[in-house]
Write the structure tokens for this entry.
Amino acid sequence: MALAAEYSALQWEKVSSRTYERSIDDMERFFSLVGKGGVGATDDQHWHIAVIAKIKTTGLDLRKDVTTAWRTLRSINPGLSAIVQGDRLIYTVADEQELEPWLKETLQFHDTPSTSRELFPIRNLTGRAMLHVLLQTQELVLLAPHTHLDGIGAYTAMNNLLQALADASTARGPRLGDEVQHLVSPLNVLAEIPVATDAHKSTNQSMLGNWVSGFAGVNLDLKDTKQPCRDPRIIHTPFDISETERIVARCKELGLTVTAAVQAAVSIALRRQVKSTGTVQSAVTIHNVRKWIDKTKYPATGLVGPLTIPVPAVFTLADDFVETAQLAKKKYLEPEQTDLLRTLPRFWGNDMVAIMTSPPPGMQAPSSLGLSSFGILDAYVKPVYEGAAGGKVEVQDAWMGITLYSPDVLLHVWTLQGAMHLQCVYNEAYHEKEAVTALLKATEDELLQGLGLR
């Protein structure tokens, strides 16, 4: 009965002639909290997501047609224009009176020669999604709080936007107000997240204890973590297509996933860099759970919100690279092989929120080196989008950044159009650029050497 009442509260409800509301669920509650995290004033920007596409267009007027495409994206993913207030998500229905201020607030054009990587991070103080268009470099920068997007969701939204742009010259525009039919419920409802049992709670507490203890192993060197945060920064390195093919082939030959191999590489690289003899490293694995959702009821194009589950994990570092990668693969698979994963949102929405808001006396949240693998992005972002009237959008690059205001470092790995990319995100208050650059280069070297490719 309690679960039915919760699911009911998480469904969108019309509360006035132009307003729909629902309660936020566990993962949204967690991301709402961490958005206010970091050290010092962050303007609630911690862990905000930016997804970027560098494009080349044919038969389109970028300034005019992007405006049409942005309106179309709102009709496809209206939840991106909702705002979190307390524990409620509030959406205001589009109409002619609302549309102009919404466009003014959420769509901005920039006539600058700077690239998106040079401009990162771009601020988003709207509390909802917004779009920046870099006219000279032809880049689209879609920004939103983590309550509105996750990694795969960001690329899904960008895919929707790029197709809308290709179609913009012939689009008649969505009927204002019709977009509310596309408001989507959160993970707890979509995946029917059950109530956690006492056994789940016990397992989770044990896992958290091991995770915190693991920070005594291989850990990041930090500058003073009590100083105010500064800007997050990105360091990026691509592999070429032939090198990527060799990495993938060698991983298959060894029975490894590319993600596990990269995890082993960065763990070993970190241990060498900090001159540690430790054999464990605490991090967080990310699991995309869209597979739990009935796509006949909820099309993939609408699943852009936080539909991934973080899992605290402790990785074992062996002396041998392949053994370390095999252990990492096993660690990534563990949550998928039990029923614990399905209840973990409950703990992020409650236990982790409690730890972050009221940490035990003397406890300071440890910094971590986390890995997020987005896989092959071509499954979400196509190389070319074509419209019925000849409009064409070619994608030359796509990547994602996170505005990180904590002492953590995030390593991202993805493959786009046959080439693999590695990227580190860090905050310059707590890490030197030279140290992060060295870590990324060492990760690349360890990966190739460990796989026997160098």
Notes: The chain has two domains: 2-188, 196-389+403-450. The chain has 14 helices and 16 strands.
